[in-house]
Amino acid sequence: MDYESPxxxxxxxxxxxxxxxxxxxxxxxxxxxxxxxxxxxDQEPIIIKEHKRYSGHQKxxxxxxxxxxxxxxxxxxxxxxxxxxxxxxxxxxxxxxHELYHDASSIVYQNSHRTEDLEHYWIDYYKVAEGLAxxxxxxxxxxxxxxxxxxxxxxxxxxQMNTIMGxxxxxxxxxxxxxxxxxxxxxxxxxxxEVDLKKYQKSMYEYLENVNTIENNQDNSTMKx
Amino acid sequence: MxxxxxxxxxxxxxxxxxxxxxxxxxxxYVTNIDxxxxxxxxxxxxxxxxxxxxxxxxxxxxELFAKKHENNPE
Lengths: 225, 74
Prior knowledge:
Chain A is mainly alpha-helical. Chain A contains eight helices and four strands; from the N terminus they run αββααββααααα.
């Protein structure tokens, strides 16, 4: 992309497209940009009332970054409002799916602790398993929420999930001995019989999509009554 | 694990997406965590977020962000 001149600012007034990608009379992108302009240029200083820091939330951070990037890019170069709206719709769906396992992910953050030298984190796995026992809803989805929040690579993810699922087994939350057992019994393995996390993730994503669709349909039918 | 930095402005929580320093100005990019379409850029000075001078500076700040994150939002 080229950013030679600020005059490359897209003519957003003409991008009258709604969230479904249809032409409308409302300039969706223009409203967004006007908000950006107003809040960025308003001469009144903004005072920060409170400053907070949360560990983890990598997925949320990524979502917000992607959305912000989409808007900023659309404001700087000629990207159609349709592309931006399409990105937003995708992200909105991701957020809905994230909501399904957010509580379980939070359990990991709540039981993550800094090491004394503040260089690393450690997780109280037993507390995570106990936390899972207190959650309502689908255990498979809750487990996926935990999966999303642990590990820094494939190997550590499998190790940490094994430990947590071992405790879940002790607490009678699952019949699987550990995460590797779950993967083997459900075919989330490669030809060599090793755990294939991509297969697990793909399967869970499809499952979440189905659950989300059912919940949305139920919401819609409730609203129609 | 990355930390999520939240600042509260007028009773709304905003996530700090990034900070970029250029010519002794630190631009702070924030997005409302309840409304991802509500985002803006300001210049950070202690606990105050100062306005950008004009549209030209806004474009400059947006360009810096877009260049930094191009194809690599994470």
